[in-house]
Amino acid sequence: MDEMYLTRAFINPRRRGAATFLGNPQKIHAAVMQAFPLAPAANAALGPRVLWRLDSEDHRRPVLWIVSPDKPDLHHVTDFYGWPESDRPFETKDYRPLLNRLAAGQRYVFRVTINPVKSRHPGPEARETRAKVRGQVVPLVGAHNQISWFAQRAHKWGFELLPGSVPMPETDQPSDTPLPFAVEIRDRKRLRFRRSESDKKLVTLQTVTLEGMMRVTDPQLLREALTRGVGRARGYGCGLISLAPCSKPTGKPPVYC
Questions:
Q1: In Å, how far are 1, 119, 121 from 138, measured between CA atoms?
Q2: Do residues 154 and 161 lie in contact, with contact meaning Cβ atoms separated by under 8 Å?
């Protein structure tokens, strides 16, 4: 495995401009890419790419995670939006030990932010007028649909979700077929932002952060998923899977790596 790094930076939401930064995936994406002196590989689809995720469950100290094939320099982020006076305004560690020790049958607690969508196909009249019509991509709504979307694709990413029973949010419609997975939704966001200050068109992005338990089925596929990301909107904070060892309940959140 070539060099891979995992970086963590805490964001101070009380800093001037931090709220705007945290609410705009385009700004975060640009800041993350500026952290690397050399541009990433041109064909990221064939190898590791820069991934990031913002965990804002603790509104007092949101966490910016980055997985990358090069070491980032995040001082331009932490100087403005973090705790620059800290001894370690951000931390980077070698990601290869985790990747190299993955083996079939291992169990982990995982966390990932995804953008689950479906393709809405046009009606019969539209199909008659055009031989080939691409369906409109629309977000999936409801915890049942969103978790099912993730579970159905897990095998191609090298893992399976462990069985369990987690209550669906009260806002969801009751289902006759409850999901048998130990997965729950930690956060939901609907973000609207512009790709640039001159762009008048707003981008709408709906994301869901899942946390649950998995079993490794194909270590190589999982390594690819951890270093390339999964699903859509990977440039906007989706697709980065982080893992933590399964352990006995302690009442404390898992330490991801």
A1: 36, 6, 10
A2: yes
